[in-house]
């Protein structure tokens, strides 16, 4: 099932707020089962783009569609900037949130299994407020996996974590999201280089997309991988230049 | 240990207040019809215990009816104004008007319309109670985290499911704050109504005692009223803590 994840085609996407053009004519395609990272400075329009892809807001023009021709709605799992765990539900109920919201039967066994995969088997009954930031984000990953959607969209999901916890959660995400068609947005070049098969830069006003940059090696790449270090330096330069111009 | 001190502390507070009261009543040369001594109030409380209990029952019934109806009405109005801009535009001036006119000024009219029985007191209570509920609950409904709603939408939740599982739950702490305010002020409507025209209730007892300058009985009725309100508030607070166990009190360390 994972192997057959369709790709994503973004075609001529434009967004304006009043007279201000955030971006126009953005096009990119993501092959099925690949992990693409969209990198850009804060405020460039990354989150807006991801919300359009997630179907949470409408573009001024352009389309987003799946390459298999079926509708995207109902096939996307979304991870936001915060873990978005519901504080009144315990961890395992949060993992099964989608089923609760759709009025479906909750599969407790599968939720327990997924909590085991993210190392939270012992904390299934805990409330989110009793967990550390890293644990909360791992619970959010389990919730994303429970949905078992072919597309996974992530909006800087790890930005609030400290460096070491972030690296651990990145490893986990890379391992568990294999086979999904994933789009992650971040402002962290290291995160982009560790996780992405292809990296795309969003910069300028109105924002434009760079040609995809491909990093060699399998993900998650170690932080001292020479290819990674090289690409990270390159990205840092591109981002700084884009920021100054 | 904590439980014991939670009971002990208010008792100490009350003991100190009664001590000051006793001292003032005894040594300040204030006539008993202005400030009766604690002993005479205690005697009045005991002698009139059946009358007070019976009338407290009436006031309690009015208060609870007002609280029940006012809470449901306040919550419904909050839902209506949050989800319908049209309803908000038409209802908001009316809601504000209902609070701008003091219930004390409305009381004679309400007694005239709804009679000397419980109905006029319940209407007055509802008028006072619904507003803090509407204000707090509508604020809570509006301020629910957008991220929670976005997540629910990507998971394919229907609008009704989002209301039930996300907005209502997210607004529950704010609703609880409103309910606590409403509970504390709930007896006002009942007592005011009883002053204006009634044949039972603690307000009625106080009015009659006042006319006969039985100040000790007035004090006794006041004590019963205060005890009733505090018990009711403590009960609501306890229930809310059980329901909102997940809302962390960030002023206390974990």
TrEMBL record, chain B:
It is a multi-pass membrane protein. It holds the Pfam family BPD_transp_1. Its main location: membrane. Keywords: Cell membrane, Membrane, Transmembrane, Transmembrane helix, Transport. Gene3D superfamilies: MetI-like. Residues 56-236 form the ABC transmembrane type-1 domain. It is found in: Cell membrane. The chain crosses the membrane at residues 7-29, 67-87, 94-116, 122-141, 171-197, 217-236. InterPro entries: MetI-like (IPR000515), MetI-like_sf (IPR035906). One of its GO terms (biological process) is transmembrane transport. CDD domains: TM_PBP2 (cd06261). One of its GO terms (cellular component) is plasma membrane. Belongs to the binding-protein-dependent transport system permease family. This is ABC transporter permease protein. It comes from Tanticharoenia sakaeratensis NBRC 103193.
